[in-house]
Amino acid sequence: MAHIDLISLTKTYPGRIRPVLDGFSLNIASGELVALLGPSGSGKSTLLKLITGIERPDTGDIHFDGKSVLPVAPNKRGAVLMFQKAYLFPFLSVAENIGFGLKVQGESPKTIQKEVARLLDIIGLPGVEKRKPSQLSGGEQQRIALARALIVQPHLLLLDEPLNSLDPAVRMNLQETIRRIQRELKITTILVTHDLSEAMAMADRMALLINGQVAAVDQPMRLFQQPPNEAAARFVGITTFLKGSLAHGTLRTDYGNLMVNTNGHMANSALFAIRPEHIQVQQHPGQNAIPGKVVGCMYRGEHIEYQIAASGLAIRARVPMPAAMVPHGENVFVVFPQEYLFAINEQSVRHSSTT
Ligand code: ADP
Ligand code: MG
Q: Is 350 within the bounds of a domain?
């Protein structure tokens, strides 16, 4: 398939002051699935439109296999786009819907029939050729849309929140199907989603789009456990940031001294973070423990979520079951185990100079 280089892309829509994309760069290896995450309105769909050629970037370049595709017409780029809605032709049969791209290319009816059957096997719906889209469930319609996209053997598959309108069980099932097919066909894929767990389950790497740029890109586990900056950390659910001055492996903060692993971090002012599930709550003092007061306590099935106020910090801790509910106002100690505290960059994303 193809490797993709997105190079310093900028895009401002006419009549808008702020750019949607502001120096967006990302390289995607051949056969890789990269999940693109970002808040609503952050420009995810715009990026996919630039790649397919529906929109043009103001500056920057897009390479497929090392060659710019900007001079190439959208329908000649070999990138297919799949949306949240299947957009099947309602009056055509499933076979006619899937075979549409090959028909346009002038393939023979026999070839088309054979390819349609092959794709139906791949998506796990053999034998539904004669049905109409209205006779399929939402999940099945999305499978047909996927088959229709793949039949033209694209270099690049672009998925724009394709599973959003499906209920959870169907959604999980299709996540597995898409990932299996993507691996089998080794097709380079960008999956846009705002669902963090979906991105982590499906992607080789995740990229976070914040303020028009890639705020972080890494393998899901690394990005989730140790995001590089505050914006990325907040996006993956981290809310506890500890600021202080560093000296000999100790972070001196307004709430007490904490032992930290500095990993060569020499700056005297430092910001550390910790995931909510790594914070412990106990009744007694101890190392890396600061006193606080419980201001909220919620049973969430697999864990209890405590909200604790401690010296001006609002701390959210997720303690796995079995754990006890604690009454509001109770005095506790919050523990930040040294091995789970990690340093992050305070400067997250370069802010746009045009705002
Ligand atoms: P996302 O897919 O991340 O939700 P979009 O790429 O759809 O974000 O949109 C990014 C921003 O650009 C939004 O503020 C949106 O309103 C704006 N936008 C999208 N398309 C157009 C357009 N054709 N003209 C003007 N503004 C647009
Ligand atoms: Mg969108």
A: no
For residue 192, is it within any domain? Answer: yes
Closest ligand to Cα 14: 1
The predicted model scores a pTM of: 0.91
Q: What is the rounded average pLDDT of the residues 37-44?
A: 95
For ligand 1, is residue 38 a contact (CB within 6 Å)? yes
Of residues 268 and 70, which shows the higher confidence score? 70
- The model's pLDDT over 68-124, given as tens digits with 9 standing for 90+, comes to 999 999 999 999 999 999 999 999 999 999 999 999 999 999 999 999 999 999 999
H runs (alpha helix) in the chain: 44-52, 94-104, 109-122, 138-150, 168-185, 196-202, 220-225, 230-235
Mutate to test the pocket of ligand 1, among 12, 16, 20 (most ligand atoms within 8 A of CB): 20
14-20, Cβ contacts within 8 angstroms, sequence gap of 24 or more: 17/354, 17/355, 18/352, 18/354, 18/355, 19/58, 19/212, 19/352, 19/354, 20/46, 20/212
From the CB of 40, is ligand 1 less than 6 Å away? yes
Q: Is there a single domain that holds both residue 187 and residue 313?
A: no
Average pLDDT over residues 232-241: 95
CATH number of the domain where residue 288 is located: 2.40.50.140
- pLDDT at 327 > cutoff 70: yes
Protein residue with its CA nearest to atom 22 in ligand 1 = 13
By residue range, what is the domain housing residue 272? 233-343
Same domain, 213 and 240: no
In a domain, 355, yes or no: no
- Mean pLDDT of the region 286-309: 96
